[in-house]
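Ticket #4471: structure export looks truncated?
Reporter: QA, pipeline team
Priority: medium

Steps to reproduce: submit the single chain below to the structure queue and open the exported record.
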Amino acid sequence: MNAAPRTALLTLALSAALGGFVGTPLPAQAKTKSVTAAATVDIPYDEFTLPNGLRVLVHTDRKAPIVAVNLWYHVGSKDEPAGRSGFAHLFEHLMFNGSENAPGEYFTPFEAAGATDMNGTTNTDRTNYFENIPTTALDMALWMESDRMGHLLGAIDQKTLDEQRGVVQNEKRQGENQPYGQLREVVSRTMFPVGHPYHHTTIGSMNDLNAASLEDVKTWFRTWYGPNNTVLVLAGDIDVATAREKVARYFGDIPATPTMSQPKVDVAVLAQNGRTELEDKVPQVLVQRMWNVPQVGDKDADLLDLTSQVLGGSASSRLDERLVHRDKLVDSVSTSNYGSQLAGNFSIRALVKQGVDPARVEAVIDEELQRLIKDGPTAEELARAQTDYRAGFIRGIERIGGFGGKADALASCATFTGNPACFRESLATVASATPATVRAATAKWLGNPSHTFVVKPGERKPLVEEASAKPAPFQLPAVDAKYTTTASNVDRKAGVPGVDSFPQLVFPALQHATLKNGSKVILAERHDTPVVNISYEFAGGYSSDHGGKLGTANFASQMLDEGSGELNSLAFKARAEDLGAQLSAGAALDGSNAYLSALTENLDASVQLFANMLRAPRFDQAEIDRVKGQWLSGIAQEKARPQTAALRVLPPLLYGADHPYGMPFTGSGTEASVAAISRQDLLNYQKQWLRPEQATVIVVGDTTLAEIVPVLDKHFGDWKGEGAAPAKVDVAQVARPTAPRVFLIDQPGAVQANIYAGELMPSTRDPGAVQLEMSNEVLGGSFTSRLNMNLREDKHWSYGARTVITSAQGQRPFLGIAPVQIDKTAESAAEMLREIAEYGTGKVPATQAEVTKVVDNDLRSQPGAYETAQAVMGTIGGIVRYGRPDNWVQVRNEQVANFTPAQARDAAKAIDPNALTWVIVGDLSKIEAPVRALKLGEVTVIDADGKPVAKAK
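Actual output as written to the record:
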């Protein structure tokens, strides 16, 4: 479940296109040796256990006035009886629908308190629930978590079960609707035999979900959701004495549940090699080869992490060098080693270039694998992989909570190994690994039989589900007598504890300097993690492509790390990995940036490489040709995905094809424009736009102005732009359409439709920008917003619906977004229009309660929202791009605090339901007629390039 409705591809594309490249890193890289003393890496903790069996881990981190609350219940899809696949995940959803003493939406008090990173997830082995809350809201959070642990069943009825069943089924449809979306189901069925706990997916089957009954819900809760089957982690602004008192008070009186045995480890090594081929509506062949390997906590699993990095997990890996760079057979290749409680999966995944025989790719993969099994990694390769592992851990534990933060690390170790500090053992295993030990683990596990999955372009055939089996009779075991409860003075009938005070955000002071080359420096110190993040901000961006070749800005920016100076592409990436540095560059609508994340211990050498990247990119023709092929493949993939297909056609429809913003929001351009980009175009872009004068260097992290300025001047100080700087891009105003329009894109066989409704709004620089953004929160900007509560929680036609208003120097787009089940497309579009129209026209204006909710959540969530350096860097990037004052956070907060229902109504008037442009992607054989019958506006069927499709004769 997601605490806010999110579509990952959409979020990525929009954030990148509309200003979100500020401080956006690449995946973690690696280093081989330290230049200065390496930082200590650890997560210290205290622990205690209540008499009822609840195990509690406490980590103190006073960097911000927030506490991460993270509960791991040791139950997942592995524990589901036959005929009830998907039930663990379905139950996770039910846990967000209120409890006996707090009926209604679980999120409501958390939103009012300013919770961040709030979610719940289920996998094969565990179900977890987590949130970061202001320290003053800890009693509220513990009350809520304990109420649903101890007092849930009375709040769940058939209506709630049916509602969340529908939501989960739409989550399943949403996954399957993606290109290659059937593969996950096929992999689970194939890699583990019938009867193995991992034979089915966590999302389950439609048949089994439909068969789940209210009695199943009650039995599941009574069996698994007890304190003795749970690990609770509290991390952040808290100490063990406070934790002990509060946890005992809220959880101590909850009775234990039966002690259920866990399945035995069963790696289920394949008996023989196998092969499965599928057809799907995809633009290119996918080859995925998989092995069953050791479970999490096994030393060989840690060693296989190193194997993965050497073989295909890094930009300079063996498979990248061979398949991507030398033989040029694939557009991308990757490896992964994913460990679970009972077994793991090692995977090699390659997207084959069009026209290449997949058998050639498979042969090279096997050749490189056999070479690694025979000889093992070189000392240099192993050192890089070890550094990548350590650097990734350092960056990951910057966060106290959320996905992969410190609370997660402790809870995972405690749940699966019994030792909360198992990460220390893994770090030690990796640090002490030798080429011989890695070779031995590789040979032992990847020398076993594997299964190869191949997905080819063709007609997708629906997967046939097995009939839902009848679960075996189950008698709830007795509770172990060793567990007891303690008395509590909590009066549950009094309701959720109020939160009367809230910590104020202390945004880091912005320090200023100027480099010898004229670039401005803005520094925000953050010394909690030994990492320094640097973003060099430039003008240009997608809009500078106007009148030229679309995609040039982004292509040129992303070519910067494909070799510089004396280092070719592979050597450059290897050097970055040697330093544990992350380097990247990209463009957005109104500008571009180059990014560096450096370990403090290697700062000078990392900045040197960063400067080399910006000042002396090679733009080798061979690399241009290779990356161009990858881009063209990426465009084809964008067209195949319903979300990005819509994002490609929307800008020309909203702005016009001749407008600087009238290009795909993904920034990838078109096939024709990318094919036409020359090396000279890249050199021209670099010369015109990537220049130090009028640029700004944003630094956030473990350094001081006295330390960082000399380092920057050393490597950038004599950098000068050539010739006159280009004029600022003129972003013209665009008139809205005089009537609504509807554009349909056919996606035959789709099980969902993706609905977008958009129109242009005033610039981010507009004086009323903050009020418009806050007003949007009421309509569709949060989980409990009107649109999501309607389509997800009330109708359960969607996994999540929302509205977004992104940032731009010129007019910016407002988008309503809803992926919905295919047979409810027209009904969903009608509901979207009703919600938008009633809000925009003032027929159903924002209420005081709605305004209070969004104001409270915005202001109170800020201590948690600015937990990471990336969040701080993003806000400073906005200050730079939009000419805001240093105290913008305070200026904005004052506007938010004074936001009223009248302002919400006035801001909402900017939304004109009669000027909406609709783009709906789905199977037109099922949705075209009902959509036309709605009479939303003039209907045009277009292809993925936005060109009208002639009617078949």
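Status: closed, not a bug. The export was complete when the record was re-opened. Leaving a note from the reviewer for reference: DSSP finds 33 helices and 25 strands in the chain.
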